[in-house]
Amino acid sequence: MSVLETLVIGTFTTPERIGTDPQSMLWLLPLAAAIAVVYKATKVSKISPGHFLKESVLLFGSIVIFIITAAVVLCIVAWLVTEKLPAALGMLLF
Which of 17, 36, 45, 86 can bridge 60 by disulfide, Cβ–Cβ 3.0-4.6 Å? Predict the structure, then answer.
């Protein structure tokens, strides 16, 4: 096996480090766009540029809004579990 093949295979065995800060979350946008375009390309019966673009943009927006909503809900649940629940249990136990 050549050095190039070893390096290419090695990149698939170590995960890419993506942070959880807001700037790293911007990687969501190209991924959501790719998902929307590929999904609509397989589902639309007749592809015309205007119709295809409109459908892809609507799906892209739906994906982004759903992920933002899910992130906000998960942040609220995490805040409740880490901040409010221990305080409420502490008052009940003592």
Answer: 36
Output the pTM of the full model.
0.70
Q: Could you give the dihedral angle defined by the CA atoms of residues 26, 27, 32 and 34, in that order, rounded to the nearest 10 degrees?
A: 140
* Cβ atoms of 32 and 64 closer than 8 Å: yes
Task: Check if the beta carbon of residue 59 is closer than 8 Å to that of residue 42.
Answer: no
**Count of structural domains within the chain:** 1
The two three-digit tokens of residue 3, written as one number: 């050095």
The length of the chain, given as a count of residues? 94
Q: Are 60 and 33 in contact (CB under 8 A)?
A: yes
Q: In which domain, by residue range, is 72 found?
A: 3-93
In order along its 94 residues, the chain shows pLDDT tens digits of: 788 888 888 877 777 777 778 788 888 899 999 999 999 999 888 888 888 999 999 999 999 999 999 989 999 999 898 888 877 777 665 4
